[in-house]
Amino acid sequence: MMSLPGPAHQPSPLHTTAKRGRPPAPISPDAGDSHCAWLEPVRNSLFASRLTLDDLVVRSGYSKTRISQLLRGNDYYPPWEITFSVTRALGLPTRPLRRLWAAAAREARKGDDWIKNCIDQVAHQGEEPPLPYQAFTDDVRGVYTDYARAFLLTDQRAHWVVSEAFDILWVCWGTATASDNLHRYAWQLLRSRVMLRAPCHHDGRPDLRAAVFSTREVHNHSTVPGHFVVLTELIDLFDAITHLPDDQMDAAVLQYLCGTPHQTIAHVLGIAPTLTHAVDHHARATVEALLTTPNPE
């Protein structure tokens, strides 16, 4: 097991700013969703650091060619050793990146033995998440999971996507806390991960129709006359919700599918409570118009 040296001889910001190099080429379209989950924040961190590929060569001990391949996500899925070296050179946290890297390795059809052997090659010390990050994720985890479950339908998939979003948030915590609205930043991150995995209509809208079968109305009326009328109306309602603008759809999902109170919705979405009521009003009006407009023959 090897122990990699830390970034002991880091050039000052004045030096690195003066010699900003050409950024890496765009991420390969062959990189999967889980691969991009850690690769995008790593690239963003590199751009923000003003470091060049030459700087990373010095700090990581790997060639410019291999680092460039890693940053483009092409040719091969990178072992953990080089991934760790590059991300440590950028000062990024190891624990969430290792989990994200392992998930992407499985997406790339790497076996568990390969993943374990890669991780075992690198000596590392555990690190605890920042306390403010831990408090934040504890605060929003329940609502995030309810929202994810509405689209992904199972507890397992919902918990997995929320954990992925929280790992990305940990990697990006400095950027998130420097943003104008931490709750807004984190919500948009969670939402993007959910939408990547949610079933969709042919026009790209998320498909909420299957969520109908998890609602209280369906369970309470499954054996009484009119059950199919209730079911059809709910399917139409949920389908109409997905036509709403993002904030209105999210508020509607949280309120009507997840039973989230208005005040909590405002808190989690990062918007003012008064705006939550306005969003709900517009959502109701839009959904009613959609439901009462005849479908074209």
Automatic annotation (TrEMBL):
Region: Disordered, residue numbers: 1-32
Top-level division of the source organism's lineage: Bacteria
Please name the InterPro entries in this protein's record. RNA_pol_sigma_r3/r4-like, WH-like_DNA-bd_sf
Report what the protein is called: Sigma-70 family RNA polymerase sigma factor
Tell me which species this is from.
Streptomyces erythrogriseus
